[in-house]
Specification:
By secondary structure, the chain is mainly α. It contains 14 helices and no strands. It is globular, with a radius of gyration of 21 Å. It holds the Pfam family UME.
Length: 252
């Protein structure tokens, strides 16, 4: 518990406390110099204490004073920046709960959107798709007062590798980590060249993404969402009518 306290002190005042010393409390008999702290040590420490820290931060957001809650959300963003995406994905329910709580308070929205930006940039596109609908509709709830920030985040959630928002512009690639073809993929496509396997994998991923985006056909008409709505409309156009009905019926 003392090590959790040390880490929380760092998250709230990074200029006054040393992260390596906080992590070193549990990983070494004596505090470890910053240069000797490895990503693996940091990951092990955070895996052991992450749920407890998230629960404590949640309590602070619920009961703290305004200034305290703002500092808590900023500390939460710093915590997200330290954690590997695969571990964040494992506790995504807790993370989304904290983000939802932040958006429910006007004084926390700005710092919450910054934390959301850190969170989304840590995830792969497959992981983002799992939280797509929930995230989009939470963000849209604060669109009117935070158009630019929300539009930026929605662009991280809704993207099209083939999209050109204006004639002559470059395609808008996925901001997330793409899955790589594995030996298993290759074995499942025996007889195909590696190039064909890669193309087939990308096509299946693109079709899956289109199917998800169809569920966002009810995005509101808003100038800040013009690009995102264009992506959704192109996804609908690429799907067959039968696939479109399946996705819409699954959503409603």
């Amino acid at each position: 518990m003392y090590s959790c306290t040390c880490l929380l002190r760092y998250l709230f005042s990074p200029s006054q406390f040393d992260l390596s010393s906080a992590i070193g409390v549990d990983t070494q008999p004596t505090p470890t110099p910053a240069a000797e702290i490895s990503d693996e040590q940091l990951s092990v420490f955070l895996q052991q204490h992450l749920l407890a820290i998230l629960t404590w931060l949640n309590g602070q957001l619920l009961s703290g004073a305004v200034v305290s809650r703002t500092r808590t959300m900023t500390a939460f963003a710093r915590l997200l920046a330290l954690i590997d995406g695969k571990y964040l994905y494992m506790v995504r329910g807790k993370v989304l709960g904290l983000l939802r709580l932040g958006l429910s308070s006007d004084v926390l929205v700005v710092s919450t959107l910054e934390a959301w930006r850190v969170f989304l940039r840590k995830l792969s596109f497959e992981q983002v798709h799992v939280i797509l609908n929930e995230s989009v509709f939470m963000l849209v709830s604060v669109l009117e007062d935070h158009e630019d920030s929300v539009a930026e985040l929605l662009n991280l959630l809704i993207y099209d590798d083939d999209n050109t928002s204006e004639p002559g512009t470059q395609p808008n690639p996925s901001p997330h980590v793409h899955a790589h073809t594995t030996d298993t993929d290759t074995n499942q496509h025996e007889g195909q060249s590696p190039k064909n396997v890669t193309i087939d994998t990308r096509e299946r991923a693109a079709h899956s993404r289109d199917a998800l985006y169809v569920q966002l056909y009810i995005l509101p008409q808003h100038p800040a969402l013009e690009r995102c709505r264009g992506v959704v409309e192109r996804a609908i156009a690429r799907l067959s009518f039968e696939d479109f009905l399946v996705q819409v019926c699954a959503y409603v």
